[in-house]
Design goal:
Elements lengths: L2 H8 L6 H4 L7 H11 L2 E4 L6 E7 L2 E9 L8 E7 L9 E5 H16 L13 H7 L1 E3 L6 H6 E5 L2 H7 L2 H8 L12 E6 L2 E7 L5 H22 L6
Antiparallel strand pairs: 1-2, 2-3, 3-4, 4-9, 5-7, 5-8, 6-7, 8-9
Length: 233
């Protein structure tokens, strides 16, 4: 399961993102049509190499993009999203597929124990720092299949339980068929008062993009419900 992630970490840095990251195979037309039915804004960048969706959840703006992968462990295109939620900035919760966490753990261990390492490798992704900063947490109310596929890191277990309610957990499991395999890099997280999503766009199918957008907006709604600022009485 982890062999292709291991290869991704061991290969040489890319000369450019475009060298290994082809333009998304999905045609803009169907995405635009679907975005229109959802009330999302849609645009294509000047070079035609990336797509963008925009909308609001709970009155808060969010943006989702499809473009060249920004992480060495991702292949082809990446879906990334951010929402300006305005929730507590001191809280952090990360949902990461377990195969990616295992690969990051291994890479972090090899990096920090390498006797020849004389300086910090600034090319290492920030996700590795999260492994050292946040604790892995779990609880019994979510199904075993969720924990088999995902790992949850958080500054507190209470924050994670409040955010990842059963409906969101089920959406994280119910990908369309064909959908991302268990080892395909995926993470959704709350940090610095914002909501984020990063995932490898694999397979590059409209249904995968649609489900990713649905997960992200549901995650933002859940975060606002649990951590949004309540008006004074």
């Amino acid at each position: 399961m982890f062999s292709r992630l291991k290869k991704a970490f061991s290969r040489e840095p890319r000369a450019s993102a475009e060298a290994e990251s082809p333009i998304s195979q999905i045609a803009p037309g169907p995405v635009s049509e679907w975005a229109g039915t959802q009330g999302f804004g849609f645009s294509v960048d000047a070079k035609g190499n990336g797509l963008s969706l925009e909308g609001k959840v709970g009155g808060k703006p969010w943006r989702m993009q499809v473009g060249a992968a920004s992480r060495p462990y991702m292949r082809g295109d990446e879906i990334r999203a951010r929402a300006e939620l305005g929730i507590r900035e001191d809280m952090a919760v990360v949902v990461m597929n377990r195969a990616l966490k295992v690969a990051l753990d291994k890479q972090a261990y090899e990096t920090y124990t390498d006797q020849l390492q004389t300086s910090v490798d600034t090319s290492l992704p920030e996700e590795m720092r999260w492994l050292a900063i946040y604790n892995e947490v779990g609880w019994d109310s979510l199904p075993r299949e969720f924990w088999n596929r995902y790992s949850v890191l958080a500054d507190s277990r209470e924050s994670a339980v409040a955010w990842i309610e059963p409906g969101l957990a089920r959406m994280l499991l119910d990908w369309p068929v064909p959908g991302p395999a268990d080892e395909v890099p995926f993470m959704i997280f709350l940090m610095r008062g914002k909501g984020y999503l990063r995932m490898e766009y694999s397979p590059p199918d409209l249904a995968v993009l649609q489900h990713g957008a649905m997960i992200f907006t549901q995650a933002c709604e859940a975060a606002l419900a649990s951590f949004g600022h309540k008006p004074a009485a």
